[in-house]
Amino acid sequence: MFQTLMASSHFPGQQLKLLGYRPTDQDIAALMHLWRYVGYLMGFQPPWYPETATDGFRAQLLIMLGEEPDFGPDTQSLCRSFMDTFRPPEDARGLRRVVGNLRYRAQLGHARFYLGSDLYTSCGLPDPGLWRYAPVARFAPNFVRETARRNIPGAAGWIDQVHRAARQEFLRKHLDGGEAKFQPVDKLTR
């Protein structure tokens, strides 16, 4: 459970840097604090929890050194089923299907980029081809935008408005006019 909290906070905070974002150590510590609270809400209260980005790095290192990964059939099934959620719907045709397949390949590329070849292959995911480099293409625009956000007065608000509008448009297109709803499965895989 501790590893899950760390993998949802410290690790992504550091990974954002590979995409050109510039989170500070205080930003990462705030994300870790949020996930510590999520753990508390879920009933998990570790006796020790890192409070700084440096302590988060130490905790991630201890987790990595102290745990042997298990890439059995359950892990592979979970990884494939998660990535399959990015596939276009079965009824998608024409341009919608093409764009959906491109989006799926891009998600595979992001997974491959972050996990590295050995871990990605161990998860049983298909080869993303050149899409593994897709995140690199995002570095320069993200870095320029982040630098402007930090240094130009008013840029942060404008960037926020643009991204909110883009998010709303994305949801409008992909929810087909409906609302996002949680739908539990009727039967688990086991």
- The arrangement of helices and strands along the chain is HHHHHHHHH
Number of helices: 9
Instruction: Name the beta content range.
Output: under 5%
Mean pLDDT: 87
Estimated structural class? mainly alpha
Report the biggest beta sheet as strand number plus sense, adding barrel if it closes.
none
3D shape: globular
Oligomer: single chain
- Total number of domains: 2
Span between termini = 21 Å
Radius of gyration: 19 Å
> Roughly how much helix do the residues carry, as a percent range?
55-70%
The tally of beta strands, per DSSP, is 0
Low-pLDDT stretches: none
In brief:
The protein has nine helices and no strands.
Structure characterization notes:
This protein is an all-alpha fold and 190 residues long. The chain has 2 domains: 2-66, no CATH class; 73-174, no CATH class. The protein has 9 helices and no strands. It has helices at residues 2-7, 10-15, 25-41, 53-66, 73-84, 94-115, 117-122, 134-151, 155-174. The longest helix is centred in the middle third of the chain and has 22 residues, at 94-115. The protein is globular, with a radius of gyration of 19 Å. The two termini are 21 Å apart. The mean pLDDT is 87.
Supply the key terms.
0% strand, mainly alpha, 2 domains, 190 residues
Question: Layout of SSEs?
Answer:
Layout: H1 2-7, H2 10-15, H3 25-41, H4 53-66, H5 73-84, H6 94-115, H7 117-122, H8 134-151, H9 155-174
Helix pairs in contact: 8-9
